[in-house]
Amino acid sequence: MSIDVKFFASLREQIGKSDIQIESTDSLTCAKIWAQVCNNAPLPSHILMAVNKEYAVQSAPVQDGDEVAFFPPVTGG
Amino acid sequence: MSIDVKFFASLREQIGKSDIQIESTDSLTCAKIWAQVCNNAPLPSHILMAVNKEYAVQSAPVQDGDEVAFFPPVTGG
Amino acid sequence: MKIDITSNKFNPWIQLQTFEKNIIALHGKCGAVATFVGTMRDEGNTVQTMFLEHYPGMTEKYLQTFSETALQRWDILDTLIIHRVGEIQPGETIVLVAAWAKHRDSAFEACRFLIDTLKSRAPFWKRETLNDGIKWVEK
Amino acid sequence: MKIDITSNKFNPWIQLQTFEKNIIALHGKCGAVATFVGTMRDEGNTVQTMFLEHYPGMTEKYLQTFSETALQRWDILDTLIIHRVGEIQPGETIVLVAAWAKHRDSAFEACRFLIDTLKSRAPFWKRETLNDGIKWVEK
Q1: Closest residue on chain D to C33 (Cα)
Q2: Which helix (H) or strand (E) element contains residue D46?
Q3: Which residue among B45, C91, D42, D120 is least crowded, i.e. fewest CB within 10 A of its CB?
């Protein structure tokens, strides 16, 4: 399956990419996607996640065609 | 001594006057002024008082030249 | 700090725009503004107009005291209170209250304090002209 | 209910004036409006400009959800949220939030809820351009 992975703000700058397409045959979660994209680096506890533009937890299952985003704590307003 | 007594809003309409000058040789309080002006009618508990444009209680002493006001609960804003 | 008791109809947003433009001290210092606007509702045909009476001198004094208290109690930069008196029509603005601060907590709390103390303590009285007569608003 | 994420500079008071003029449903119905305006402060020379990033699609969706929640939870008539994105200069407005209601408690509480949830949950990020480099604002 194919997943669209996005990064925002300081995390986007650290990763050096805003958008990555990943392919996988395994069943996936947010945590597994992070591990795959970041070469098994631990997922920092302050990093937030969204699946299809809804906040999600690390263990949230991800389906083919989903959009998964990782970003730092929000600072709007 | 001479006291300027004022009434506002519905109380002004009930009393039928907005301003009364009273003279007295006794020592005065808000309650005594009310009694003198209203022919000893009891002072309704919801009526508010001010001496020289500061909220006051019934027992507040009043001096020569003071302005004493009686009015119903406020409804601004 | 500005307090205005006026018998003229006013638009609260134009007042805020003008106030901010003129108060140079706020420029760049202010990070948060909380405002409250109170308007006369249109209750169908029951209430035709409203009349707002006040105690000249005492009302101004108390609005001044409330503003000074807010400026002492919260970390705010400035306050504005405008209140209508006299004849007023449905849909028109009765009161505008605003507090400028560095941060939002102080702005909200000061604004809330100003309108709450105004409503409970400032000597204003509302009289409604109804279809079937005149009635003082009671608390 | 209006939500606007814009890269254009805006004056909050002009926006409020325009919104009220256009929303006929508010005329006569509204007795209370609470608003909050957040502004970029001028920290002397330390911060030159700010850049506001957001997550297109998700940010709008969440602001929409917050507004719908406010309309369900409180007895309010309408809400407005405008938020800047992109490059922004000291003194400029970052955010405007407003709630129209019959009575003041609901207006204040809904307005406070909107700005608090926006600040804690809406995906926006601030980056400051300082004299000595670029720094993401951290919570």
Answers
A1: D37
A2: none
A3: B45
